[in-house]
Amino acid sequence: MDQYPYRYPPPPISEAYPPPSPQHSPYPYQYSYTAPYPHQNPYPYQSPPAYPYPHPYPSQPNHPSPRAHVGAYSGHVPHVGAPAPTFQHSSSLQYDSSHYQYPDSGVYQSPSSTPQPPLRSHSLGSGFPSNSVGNVGTSEAITYPPLEDLVADLRVSNGRPSVPVSPSAPSVALVGNSPMRYGRSSSGADMGFPDGRASIPASPSVLSGPLVGSSPMAYASSSGELGNHSYYNRPFSRAPSWDSCFSCTDGSPSIPSSGDGMQLVPSQKGSLKVLLLHGNLDVWVYGAKNLPNMDLFHKTLGDMFSKLPGRVTNKIEGHVARKITSDPYVSIALSHAVIGRTYVIANEENPEWMQHFNVPVAQHAAEVHFLVKDSDVVGSQLIGSVSLPVEQIYLGAKVEGTFPIMNGSGKQCKPGAVLSISVQYAPISNLSIYRHGVGAGPSYEGVTGTYFPLRTGGRVTLYQDAHVPDGYLPEFNLDMGMKYVHGKCWQDISDAIRQARRLVYIVGWSIWHKVRLVRNGSNPESECSLGDLLRSKSAEGVRVLLLVWDDPTSRSILGYRTEGIMATHDEETRRFFKNSSVQVLLCPRVAGKRHSWVKKRGTTTGCPREPWHDLHCKIDGPAAYDVLTNFKDRWLKASKPHGIKKLKMSYDDSLLRIERLPEIIQIDEVSRLTEDDPESWHVQVFRSIDSNSTVGFPKNPKEATSRNLVCGKNVLIDMSIHTAYVKAIRSAQHYIYIENQYFIGSSYNWSANRDLGANNLIPMEIALKIAEKIRAHERFAAYIVIPMWPEGVPTGAATQRILFWQNRTMQMMYETIFKALVEVGLEDAYTPQDFLNFFCLGNREGTDGSPGLTGSHQPNSPQALSQKSRRFMIYVHSKGMIVDDEYVILGSANINQRSMEGTRDTEIAMGAYQSQHTWARKSAHPFGQIYGYRMSLWAEHLGLVEDCFTEPETVECVRRVRTIGEMNWKQFAAEDPREMTGHLLKYPVDVDRRGKVRPLPGCENFPDLGGSICGSFLAIQENLTI
Asked: φ and ψ at 771, to 5 degrees?
């Protein structure tokens, strides 16, 4: 199956609040000079050479024509037999390494030449470099794909045509050596724009390709007009031609239909440049024409049946479709990542998708690939591809047109096979919505392009771990004379269940009935387990439903029981509630992939107990209804009858109809805190889930875009958690603090294994944010806390592989930061770790004379070594991020492909902020609940509080926290056991001044248990551990 896209439509630009004034921007990073932005004006203008060839058509009188062509050229275009990219005919995108070897990621120098004054405003070359099509430089030599062979020997010229305008060329099939026509049409329909209009970008140019035709409460744990003819009304109305091929227009309203125009003239082909695209790609996939029939076997079978006698034919009618042909869809690929995909249209050789994508990108790439595929029952088959050089869109020009679909041998996959698309790139520097953080004015809409909207006027309570004893952590003063209160999560959950009057719905990866939520010996509630509490509430008439992950390795068949590899107690919990009114529903992690688990647990019996650290939250108010909606939709999907159960006459889904209960207020009736209330929260719910695991998604995939869903193969996907992370990182102005169980991503930019498929943007976005701040001479810091090793035995193959991918991610980020330091000449003054640091948690107990763990073990076994050293990892199970002390994301999603992709693990998260406590509102550092929460976490992890912690972006704070972490690691790894007061350890790898990540000298393996800290990768590449 394809890797699925990461879509993020940029929200509308809101300028309701001005950005913070410079005098209120704290902690400026002062330098002695200002370095220029390295990618500014990368394409100086050049005057094209004179047209060296005579026009192939004889002069003829000019006469009125509805389709005038200015500067037309017709004839055979020389075809250069460049090697074509090889694509594997399967469901995932693969590039043949012999043709597309992208250089190591980093800063790629743009083509250089002597700047020239821009062309006239009415010239077709105005605002766009004359060498954008044709000779584009000679840096990293990457071969043009077959499409570019057709037009590579053409150069844009703003000279007048040497002959009068010629009439329209007859329609011809598009093959590599066929006659073609080049020129610009005066008709908007020829340009292929919907409603006959072109969307003029901020940079004054539009680049068009060849066109065709005349045209409640919830707890969560962790523009110029170019014509009047509409593309929609008259798509593909005649056979394809190359009219209007690569016509360039500026944004001036005075676009002439004849007179001064553009000529495409032969020139020397140059190599493609690999450039960084960091921003949003706006893409339209309109449709395709004359696709080949990839299902020839089925067609042949149908033809054979059609020759049988009529009576036999009638008997098989309905079993063989009348029309059996390709089921096409289009995947959009950038670098080694698929960033978008259309829905599948069954049995159609002339599909019309009319599908729009607005995709966040953070990739170094030479081309944007549009892969036209035929969907099969298993996998897919490549029909052909269209490739656009990144240089053509890098400056913001809009590339729109109809292009021939080429196969792997460099020829058109079928005569007349074309794809109509539109592409425009908006760099991050042009997207002002990311400049002011969150909550910039009352019109702020939160994260747009998501399934659930931003809900205002609610309340949020933030927790660390299950319980924080009174007096354990210091108090923190907040704005408006308030103090931060350290919450007690499990106590609050227990109170909420006891006070429930109508319903208690619980969904979780692991729900164990023996857990005691209250563990205070003096409290009588501490004797009650979760199972007993839920049974008692159900007996009172409260509807209690549990949706629990079904561990495929735990079974109870004919008295034979297996507890399961993951020890989630799912079968044990189901048996406990079997004879009660509590209903337990076991469902797979992902409905479409019932065996999507990979972790393997080894034996650590006899080792010290491994404490877990986690983040939690409680939502009161309107957003709690969205959490309820998620539960109801998932329950309905999981409880839907399958197989023989469908024969039942009635179907009771057990869910209460809350709209029929007058005592339960509806979402439009719930009371909201006002905007001016200092305790008011704005909350938004996000998910990673697909239509295999929930109901409520539209049946028609054409409606997916309107619901902010992504198309997969026969599935619709909600990827809003990934969208929220990208939006928050791009909006960050000062620092990012992350705690997560995994940290793997952006494999398309690794030094190796780029086609692994861990394509979430989060690590790359963080690295690019830091690089952007370095170039702007502003301070920024990122703190990332992860487990010492993933859950399981550190020597296990799966654990080692996860560590290996994690190390690749770290390496990519540090190298990106180092290159930014070099660009501004600060590589001697600062190191990459002055901006980015990784940490883990651990503890060590001193020898106080108390007896250690019992049991006889081999002297050098992990159990014996652990008992002697008295050290253990604190497992980071958190899944959260804090940005600038003003925005927080908490939920169940890890930072890896499994959680972010939306088609694998099902996840939920919330993003929240206090409208009275943002940088945009205060023009100063906010000291609201999110600030208090972060300080509470740091106080627990570090064991102390210092003044510099209030300004985490400063180099003083970064170095101080790193120094404490390094000291704690030395104490953790030392021979003699000593009591540790702090638990935050610097992650045990060595990062040199050039950003190279290596094993820590003398500590290449984890203490006691062994296993390489940097991981290992020995077997075949797979995607289960990403």
From this structure: -60, -40
Q: What does the pLDDT read at residue 924?
A: 92
Residue 940: strand, helix, or coil: helix
Length of the chain: 1026
Coil, strand or helix at 891: strand
For residue 100, what pLDDT is reported? 36
pLDDT digits (tens, 9 = 90+) for 241-288: 333 333 333 333 332 333 333 222 233 345 899 999 999 999 999 999
Residue 258: name the closest of 133, 164, 182 by CA: 164
Angle between helices 489-499 and 530-539 (to 10 degrees): 20
pLDDT at site 35:
38
**d(Cα 332, Cα 517) in Å, to the nearest integer?**
49
Q: Cβ atoms within 10 A of the Cβ of 47, count?
A: 12
What secondary structure letter does DSSP report for 473?
S
Question: 655 — alpha (psi -120 to 50), left (phi > 0) or beta?
Answer: beta
- For 122-199, strand residue ranges (E) read 155-157, 180-185
Q: Which token pair is 702?
A: 């054409």
Contact 46, 118 (CB under 8 A): no
Considering only CA atoms, which of 783, 793, 907 is closest in space to residue 841?
A: 783
Return d(Cα 682, Cα 217) in angstroms, integer.
Answer: 15
Rounded to whole angstroms, the Cα distance separating 85 from 259 reads 40
Longest dimension (CA), the chain: 108
Digit-coded pLDDT (tens) for 855-876: 566 777 777 787 888 889 999 9
Distant-in-sequence, close-in-space partners of 481: CB < 8 Å, separation ≥ 6? none
386-420 CB burial, b ≥16 within 10 A, e <16 = bbbbbbbbbbbbbbbbbbbbbbbebbbbbbbbbbb
Token pair belonging to 886: 């003003």
What pTM was computed for the model?
0.74
3-class state of residue 427 by DSSP? strand
pLDDT reported for residue 336? 85
> Is the distance from CB of 432 to CB of 414 less than 8 angstroms?
no
CA dist., res. 997 & res. 897, Å (int) = 22
Amino acid 570: pLDDT: 62
d(CA 47, CA 49): 7
Q: 764-768, long-range: CB within 8 Å, 24+ apart, which pairs?
A: 764/362, 764/363, 764/812, 764/813, 764/816, 765/360, 765/362, 765/725, 765/726, 765/729, 765/730, 766/729, 766/736, 766/813, 766/836, 767/812, 767/813, 767/816, 767/817, 767/836, 768/278, 768/362, 768/428, 768/816
Residue 291, classed as helix, strand or coil, is coil
Under-50 pLDDT residues of the chain: 1-215, 223-269, 301, 305, 312-321, 591-603
